[in-house]
Fold these 2 entries.
Entry 1:
Amino acid sequence: MEKKFEKLTVIDLMSEQHTVLRKITEDRWREVSDISFSHTDFFLLSKLEQESISISQAASFIKISRQAMQKSAVSLEERGYIRFEYLPGNLRDKYMTLTEEGKICQSKYNRIKEKLEREMAENIGREAMAYLKSILKKKLI
């Protein structure tokens, strides 16, 4: 273990690793695609793959202002990666969903993350990776 990590809490260790892993995935994206996405764009596309959400929900999830999220979402919409729609029976809130082009990009991004996960499993061992994933899927608090 690196000396700088010795006194970190699990929260800090997870944050450190998250930062490193996000940077690697975004760098690898830039190696295989000429499509430019910001850090926020990547977070939003990944979240929208899981579920349709509103601007406010996305801003809260990503921990940025609603205005910053609106700017990112509008840019992604203009570029054809997401669309805004109303849910049946709710004409007040617009929800974002991935377009077909957004799904293609997200699928390519997922392949990058899956390859990185395999590399991590080779490094720490497949059993350790399976155990880590099982822990992270649990409600920790």
Note: Helices lie at 10-32, 39-50, 55-62, 66-78, 100-124, 126-136.
Entry 2:
Amino acid sequence: MFKRWMQAAAVCLLGVVMLGAGDPASRFNRLGHQMICVCSCGQILLECNHVGCPDSDRMIGELRQQVAGGGADTAIMNWFAAKYGPTVLAAPMRGGFDNVAWIAPMAVFLMATIGTGFLIRMWKLRSGARTPVSAAGAGGAGGDELRERIRRETEY
């Protein structure tokens, strides 16, 4: 039993080391790819490549300071959102009112699907209540007259 616990601990330690959980460079890279440059280019912060960008160098420097300060990822993202506005985030953070941005599209899709199904069912029930009219009409004799009239009207 002790051997299994040691193997599990070794796997966990290896996973943490391989994922770079303690590496500030990988954390910096991950956080930098979760933000948008505020110079209105619409690119990811670490990938902003337009010449003479007035904002990306300053923001990257601030990100380096925040990561070196050792704050939590959510605290760093909140700091940037407070300073530059929520548009600096590439994707809304989970929690609070931002959950609406994640839930609303799926809820609208589901409601539209259910509503369409309900509408189709109502149309089927409504059309099923009507009695279909045959081409022959009420009697068999009127059918020949109707066919002859259709033939005359559709000739070239």
Note: Residues 25 and 67 are 9 Å apart (CA to CA).
